[in-house]
Specification:
Number of helices: 5
CATH topology: Mannitol-specific EII, Chain A
Structural class: alpha/beta
Order of helices and strands: EHHEEEEEEHHH
CATH architecture: 3-Layer(aba) Sandwich
CATH superfamily: Mannitol-specific EII, Chain A
Strand content: 15-25%
Strand order of the largest sheet: 1-4-7-3-2
Oligomer: single chain
């Protein structure tokens, strides 16, 4: 799921919005949003003052899924940083072992500022997916 929204401008609003989408679509359960917020309180998932990849403390979602939020206008205030991209991860128990590798790959890809800029310029899901596929 990808959402391009300039009206979501805080960390809390981004987590709430994306978390609700994951719950409403059956990927995760009640309590997911609260777990993501608790995890974020332990340590920020913001990287390079440019993007965030929040996730829950527990890996007990119904299905592994990602919800993406792009705000390329005013950005999303994440702690003291203004970011343009947030990828909320919901992870199911059976994919727990792959979580670290997936998470690290996302961070590695997005740490290239040219790639990040290209992704945050996307205006719809097909464009975003096409841009992702072009990354090697």
């Amino acid at each position: 799921m990808i959402f391009i929204r300039s009206d979501i401008s805080t960390k809390e609003a981004a987590i709430e919005f994306l978390g609700k989408k994951l719950i409403d679509n059956g990927f995760s359960n009640e309590g997911f949003i609260e777990s993501v917020i608790k995890r974020e309180q332990l340590s920020s998932t913001c990287f390079f003052d440019a993007f965030a990849v929040p996730h829950a403390l527990e890996m007990n979602s119904n299905q592994t899924a990602f919800a993406v939020l792009i705000n390329d206008k005013g950005g999303i205030l994440w702690d003291k940083h203004r970011i343009k991209l947030c990828i909320l991860m919901a992870v199911c128990e059976s994919e727990r072992r792959a979580f670290s590798q997936t998470y690290n790959n996302i961070v590695r890809v997005l740490s290239d500022m040219n790639r990040l800029r290209s992704l945050t310029r996307c205006t719809n899901l097909p464009e975003f997916l096409s841009e992702l596929k072009s990354i090697r």
